[in-house]
Structure formats: structure tokens, C-alpha cells
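Consortium newsletter contribution from the modelling node. Members have asked for a concrete example of what our holo predictions look like. Here is one, prepared for the iron/sulfur cluster complex that several groups have been discussing at recent meetings.
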Amino acid sequence: MKPKLALYWASSCGGCEIAVLEIKDKILDVDAFFDVAFWPVAVDFKVKDVEAMDDGEIDLCLFNGAIRNSENAEMAELLRRKSKILVAFGSCAYEGCIPALSNTTTREATLRWIYEESPSTVNPDGVRPQLATETPVGTLRLPEFWETVRSLDQVVDVDYYVPGCPPQAHQIWGVLEAVMQILEKGLELPPKGTILGAGDRTCCDECPRERKEKKISGFVRIHQTIPDPDLCLLDQGILCMGPATRSGCGALCVAAGMPCRGCYGPPPNTKDQGTKMISALASVIDSDDPDEIDRILDGILDPVGTFYRFSMAKATLGRVQIHDARAASETAEAHA
Amino acid sequence: MVMTAEHETAPPPSDWQPRIVAFLCNWCSYTGADLAGISRIQWDPAVSILRVMCSGRMDPTFVAKAFQLGADGVIISGCHPGDCHYQEGNYKTLRRVHLLRRLVAEFGIEPERVKLVWVSASEGDRWAETANEMAEQIRKLGPLRLAS
Ligand code: SF4
Ligand code: SF4
Ligand code: FES
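And here is the predicted structure:
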């Protein structure tokens, strides 16, 4: 009997699913080796089919997407129970990614924007989704939207991580090929918690640009300048997350002229991408004068959104604490 | 104060005492604090000292970690500008702390919970003043609870 493979998406954009198909005809090798037991985006199995399986019946589950509502959490628990190897696949499952940027605000503010205030919304009665709605055909239920977005391992036990937004095809194939060999030959699995499909250095180490560790006297945004094609972007005053990002993508963005945004997560021996980036930036800013330093730092428009764009669910300082009286009182009302 | 739905505010317990972690460089500030001790100058027991070789060794991650583990405030103290044993360490610290305070503020944490000072080996009194001022400041702000 072939080993069973499952893929699932929770709170995600779907990019990780497409990334799996980026391995091109190798997907046929995957299909030849595995029995695809569950993959909602591609194969028509239902949740009840998974529920009917024995615990541990799925050999490998690649789980992408963050956990932002009660349904995501239920699926995470179900697939954890049914899978021998559960992989947090892609940045959302690994560390929250873009969905977790809403940890910079409240659920109430998010829902208010989406259902009332955004310019394209017409909702004069202020209708909001309800957990349960009575209809002639019975009660309709919706998952509960959480205050705080979680990574997969903040909700269930995770065996391995594959970083990237999305993981790059050559890395995905590398991981799948290795797992297939291990399962086929009965070899030993890597230690639990290992980060698969990535390098063990920083993005800068893979970067083709020349880095002179030049001191900078101001930041510019990428649309305000035409960067030199061969020199380090950070040396040119462009905020590049390369020094605080794990290698593995092959320095894709920087090679194409865009600064690294940090999607491969913190480098080895670092848990927090943001504080790591602060260290890196402090080394390149060319001033010893407090006022001048502040003037240069004013050029970093959104420190949290820039430094934790992909890792907000894992920030050491937690989710953002909201002091805004309006959000607080409305949150209280919503819970009354 | 935390205002998100999953983290209701609770008043600090009446016997609450702040916990303040102080990173002092070996060559100036730690010696300064030592001098305060030898001179029997008292300072607030809410402040616990950790010695680092240079204020430049103070990774911003340490501060975040201290807060995560329950510190209510952090002091970083190094040699006066120009006096760092390793020449540049305290300038690097200056830039780090300025950026770190911005980051901390964006997380909704009062930036006053991170204090940077320069204390030389002969400034025992200045160290005691710094510790006392910070303890008073943090008592006013109350306990820090990170929202997880
Ligand atoms: S900072 Fe960015 S551009 Fe510079 S070397 Fe690192 S990855 Fe390349
Ligand atoms: S350069 Fe940075 S943002 Fe771009 S793919 Fe690589 S890790 Fe991700
Ligand atoms: S040795 Fe004191 S700040 Fe560097």
C-alpha cells in the first residue's frame, strides 16, 4: 500500500498550493509514490473522509496557512491526530506571515473595516457574520474569528517547518524527495523541529550583490530611487531584510532588484527577526548623534510591519497591545 | 494596559513590586555600581544587575526576552560616549536603543520601560540615582504584561 499524503490550507492566500505545483512534472513522481488522501484544492475528498481515517493513517501532511479562526484550529487538530508527520508548510503556518499582521490591531477593528468602513462596502444595517443563523432549512454556522492569529505550532504539535512565502519549488522538491526516500528505505527522520527546505545562513550570504558594509545617512524607499544593480541594497539606504532572514530562496528578490522582505523567517540561532534586524540596522546607520539618529530612523515608516512582515505570530513582544479607547470599548461591547 | 478581548485588564496585586533588569558594561557602569555598593549608597532593590562586557554586547533580543520573562523595565548602561573600552560599542548601543524604543512603542509598550544611560566607573551616585529614578518610573507605569 502506498504511503498517504495530505495537503491542507487554513488562513492563507493559496500561494503555497500553487508552489507545490511549481515542481512541475515531478508532481507525477509524488503521485506515483503517495496516495493523495486529502487535498481540498485539487482532490475531492471531504472532511468526513479524514474523520473516518484511523489516527496516524496519513503519513505526511503539508499544512499551510495560519490559524485565525475556530475552523482552522479544528482542522489543525484533526490533521495532527490523523498524521504521522505534520509539517508547517510555508510562512503562514510557520510564523503567521501576512495574516498575522492583523495582530497589530484588534478583531473588532478588522471586522469594522471589512463590514462597515472600507470604501467599497455598503452595509447600512451594519450586518456582521454570526456564529449561528436560524433559517428555514436549519441553523447555519460560521467559524469564530479570533482576536489573535496563531502559527500552527501555537495550536498543535508540529514535526517540521518549511519556510517561505511561498516555499521555492526546488526546496519543496528537495523536501518531498528526501521524505520519499526516508519512507521508502525506512531511514531515520531528522530531529523533530528541524527547519527543512532552507539554508543555514542568511539571505545576504546567498546575495549576488557586493556588500561593503557602508554607513548610510538616510533611508530611501524602493520606488524613490534606481538602485545600483551590483551593490548591496542596504548599503544604498534601501531597507533590505537580508541580514535578518534565513537563506534558502537563492536571494530571489534581491537578485531581481527588490529588497528582501524576510519571507524565509529568522536565520539560525535567532528566534526574533525584528530584534535581529535592529542590530543589523544599528551597524549601518552613520551617526553618533542622538538627534541625527532619530532623523535617520524617521525614514523607517513602519518598523513592526517591516521587521515582522512574516513573523508577527512569533514576535517575542507578543501581539500589539491596543490602547485606543474606541477599539477597547467596542471590543468590550462586542463581548458583553 | 492590554485592551484586546483575550487579555482583559486586571489591577496589579497590592503587593506588586517592579522587576527591572539592568545590563551594565563591565568596564564603566558595572564598576560604577560596584563603587556605589562600596560607598554604601543605597539603591532600589527592584533593579537586578546583569554584567555584559560592553553595552554593545546588549542584543535588542535580550530586552525583548527580558520583557517576555516578566521584566517590567530594562536599563542599559555603558561608558560615556568616547570612553567605550571597545571604542564603538556604546555608539552602536545608542542607535539600537533608539530603534528599539520605537519598536517597543509600536507594540503598545511604553518606551519609558527601556532606559539608556552612561555611567562611568567613578559615578556610583549617578548609578544609584538612575536605578531609583527608573524604579519610580516603573512603579508609576505599573506591571507590564505582554499580550500573547
Ligand atoms: S542586505 Fe540585502 S542587498 Fe545587501 S547583501 Fe544582504 S540581501 Fe543582499
Ligand atoms: S529574497 Fe527575501 S523576501 Fe525574497 S524570496 Fe528570498 S527570503 Fe523571501
Ligand atoms: S565597554 Fe562600556 S560601553 Fe563598551
